[in-house]
Design goal:
Blueprint: H1 14-21, H2 27-36, E1 43-47, H3 54-61, E2 65-70, H4 73-81, E3 85-88, E4 101-107, H5 115-128, E5 129-139, H6 147-160, H7 172-179, E6 186-192, H8 202-215, H9 220-237, E7 249-257
Parallel strand pairs: 1-2, 1-4, 2-3, 4-5
Antiparallel strand pairs: 5-7, 6-7
Helix pairs in contact: 1-8, 6-8, 6-9, 8-9
Length: about 260
């Protein structure tokens, strides 16, 4: 039986809600805003928008129009309260059909979908984009650190790896190139964030929150292990001499329309 992920569940857990709201200002947010670029007079459709309203605020502050699209009712309510246009739907089923937009932004969504649904989502995003679409996905290949960090990584792979592809960024370019029709004309480019050793543990704290929200439906030992590692990460983050670690890298694939065949 196919396991539901956080995008297909009926509600967002409190831990996952807090984690998503804390994404503003991190390296993913920076990657998204740099990739989106100039937005004045343009519409940005954010597929799998999540609980954070920061990207919408960023777009509107720069003269653009922002539309949030997500499967979760709570997410839609959060964006509506922030004054954003918000549409509830399932990208994998194209229900409802995505509205067209100049730029379609899809971050950490495809990793949650099985191949058939993922391919359908890519096709629908490409159809909806007037100018270009942006896909951002992770690659955990080089994620490593000290013993505490590696325990977190291994447990995350054990729990999250059952429901999502933590290495999709490694093959994202090929996945998208194989799905999109050559006849429609498109130019696909790839940007991979280089591995960067860091001491900022906020991203690891966010990761423990994601584990807590997903471990609830797993065995008791996973819940206990998550709590133990979360405490260890919190203690490590408070140290002045905390160890460096290499976080997961992210891959950005941009698809521009109307560029002819490769």
């Amino acid at each position: 039986m196919e396991k539901k992920n956080i995008y297909e569940a009926k509600a967002v857990s409190k831990e996952e809600e807090a984690r998503q709201k804390g994404l503003a200002g991190d390296r993913l947010f920076t990657l998204s805003t740099q990739a989106i670029g100039e937005v004045e007079g343009k519409t940005v459709l954010d597929v799998g928008a999540g609980m954070s309203t920061a990207l919408g605020a960023w777009v509107k502050q720069r003269g653009g129009e922002y539309i949030a699209f997500d499967i979760q009712e709570g997410v839609i309510r959060e964006h509506a309260q922030a004054g954003h246009v918000a549409i509830q739907g399932d990208i994998a089923q194209a229900i409802p059909v995505l509205p067209t937009a100049d730029i379609v932004h899809v971050r950490l969504v495809l990793m949650h979908l099985i191949r058939q649904k993922r391919n359908r989502a890519i096709e629908e995003v490409f159809r909806a984009a007037k100018e270009r679409c942006l896909f951002i996905e992770p690659d955990w290949t080089e994620f490593c650190g000290n013993a505490v960090v590696n325990r977190l990584r291994d447990l995350a792979i054990r729990i999250l790896g059952q429901r999502m592809d933590l290495y999709l960024g490694r093959t994202l370019f090929t996945v998208i190139a194989n799905v999109l029709p050559m006849s429609n004309g498109r130019l696909i480019t790839e940007k991979r964030l280089p591995p960067e050793s860091k001491k900022d543990y906020r991203e690891l704290v966010q990761m423990t929150s994601a584990l807590k929200s997903n471990a609830v439906e797993n065995m008791t030992e996973c819940i206990l292990a998550t709590e133990e590692i979360a405490l260890a990460i919190a203690k490590e983050a408070q140290k002045d001499n905390r160890a460096f670690f290499t976080p997961p890298r992210f891959t950005l694939v941009e698809v521009k329309k109307g560029c002819g065949q490769d």
